[in-house]
Write a structure and sequence with these properties.
- It is built from 17 helices and 18 strands.
- It is of the alpha/beta class and 485 residues long.
- It is globular.
- The protein starts with a helix and ends with a helix.
- The mean pLDDT is 89.
Length: 485
């Protein structure tokens, strides 16, 4: 299965991010004079922006990738800590595992940005001393008590005191005990700290510091990454290489994923994006090369933006469409994404038509029906029964064609605007979320028998029954094939 197809199968997983979190503040303005007090520029502030930084930016990327995200960290019991907690919650990041320590400062990085988005100064307020043993023990206890509910763990180490050698090794040990994969974003040059992690992600400087080996070309990078893998017992090491892409090694192979051609604007936060999408790919059982490719594409989008930026699944789809010239992937959003898309279209006055079916062995009857359905509004959404749903409805030998292939065939039709899968026997819950204006059905249905009729009529919509092409059905085709044997 290729990365494009896998991207459309991404499901929401429960992901825990553990590490150092911070606030990133940006003060934007203009410099028009030099201070009379000292030979320094005076920035006249015109606007400001506050975003999540460090491990919190990892969490923000995961939310944009439609994941269920919790954060575990230690912050100060100060105004900045309260603000940070509020912003996390506003971004749908769960904070139940956040620990407040009245003896610490919450880390805040403030950047002064002048004309042409040039950075003039950065002011750091932080306490990078190690957390106390008492707080560390509390964190470990909380972690073990909750770990079973997560699908995958990210440890994001910014060397701001939350993660030390002892507690990081313990986090990995506990995860392994419960068969949970741990992904490590490194900072500390210590093998012991990351022992037995599932995947370690250093950049080239970190890889060099960890192994004390040269990393000047492909061969040296593979050798250094393999050394890190052997010394830590990690299954994979993925070295990020800036514009040159990434190198992934395991026990038997290595893969060079070359950089994606895109203008580099700001590299801050790129590592956060990489580790986030590595987790998304692994949690969704992507092939390991595709995991790295997904992270590579996400990273290339992130560095083309100003400041730390969280990359969405939709942006990755758009990138793939431009690169491959394949338009139908934009027609296969998740239910959550489609709900937002339709809301915007509704605000523009567009009328939304919904229909559904198994569409197993696509034939001319399907094609003519969908063309007719599309004439009743501006946007035609087709709900497709999942493979499991078709089996329950049609029998154990069905479907003949897999759900992904059925969806791609439908998305290739000009008359179809969007295709979305549902797993239930009926599309009632899907209709409730999408809120179409019109539902169409083909065949001998009476309007009162159509699933979702109450939903559309409650908002002033209606049900339309379309004529089907006589004698054209998947069942008839299957029977004909069997009879010709």
């Amino acid at each position: 299965m290729n990365i494009e197809t896998q991207l459309n199968n991404i499901k929401t997983k429960k992901i825990l991010v553990v590490g150092d979190i911070m606030l990133d503040k940006y003060f934007f303005g203009e410099v028009k004079r030099i201070s009379p007090e000292a030979p320094v520029p005076v920035l006249h502030k015109t606007r400001e922006k506050i975003v999540l930084g460090g491990a919190a930016n990892v969490a923000r990327n995961l939310v944009r990738a439609i994941q269920d995200v919790s954060i575990m960290s230690v912050i100060g019991n100060d105004e900045e800590g309260k603000l940070l907690k509020n912003i996390l919650e506003e971004n749908n990041i769960k904070t139940e595992l956040l620990i407040q320590d009245k003896t610490r400062l919450t880390t805040v990085k403030t950047r002064m940005i002048g004309q042409s988005n040039s950075q003039l100064l950065r002011l750091d307020v932080e306490d990078a001393t190690l957390i106390s043993d008492e707080i560390s023990d509390k964190m470990i206890e909380l972690y073990e008590k909750n770990i079973e509910k997560f699908d995958i763990i990210i440890i994001s180490d910014y060397k701001k005191g939350v993660l030390n050698i002892k507690n990081t090794a313990k986090l990995i040990e506990i995860a392994n005990k419960y068969n949970k994969k741990t992904l490590i974003d490194t900072k500390e040059p210590s093998y012991a700290k990351y022992k037995d992690a599932y995947l370690i992600k250093p950049n080239l400087n970190e890889l060099k510091d960890l192994t004390k080996m040269s990393v000047n070309n492909d061969e040296e990078i593979v050798n250094a990454a393999n050394e890190l893998r052997k010394q830590t017992g990690a299954k994979y090491v993925l070295a990020t290489r800036g514009k040159d892409g990434m190198t992934l090694v395991d026990e038997n192979n290595f893969y060079h994923i070359r950089g994606v051609s895109k203008e580099v604007y700001d590299v801050s936060g790129a590592g956060d994006t990489v580790i986030s999408y590595l987790a998304v790919g692994l949690a969704n059982n992507f092939e390991i090369e595709d995991v790295a490719r997904l992270a590579n594409i996400a990273s290339s989008i992130e560095v083309s933006k100003m400041g730390t930026y969280a990359v969405s699944i939709e942006e990755i789809r758009e990138h793939i469409e431009k690169e491959n010239g394949v338009s139908y992937y934009n027609k296969l959003p998740s239910v959550e994404e489609l709900t937002k898309i339709l809301q915007k279209e509704r605000e523009k006055g567009k009328k939304i038509v919904f229909t559904n079916g198994c569409f197993d062995i696509f034939h001319v009857g399907h094609s003519r029906y969908l063309r007719q359905a599309s004439t009743y509004g501006d946007i035609l959404v087709v709900g497709v029964n999942s493979d499991d749903s078709v089996k329950r409805l049609k029998g154990p030998e069905r479907p003949i064609i897999s759900e992904q292939e059925r969806m791609e065939l439908l998305a290739d039709l000009q008359c179809v605007s969007y295709v979305v899968k549902f797993s239930e026997d009926t599309p009632y819950e899907l209709i409730k979320k999408l809120q179409p204006d019109i539902i169409t059905k083909g065949g001998d249905y009476k309007p009162e028998e159509v699933v979702g009729k109450d939903i559309v009529e409650a908002r002033g919509g209606k049900v339309i029954i379309c004529k089907l092409v006589e004698g054209k059905s998947t069942t008839n085709i299957i029977t004909k094939i069997k009879n010709t044997k």
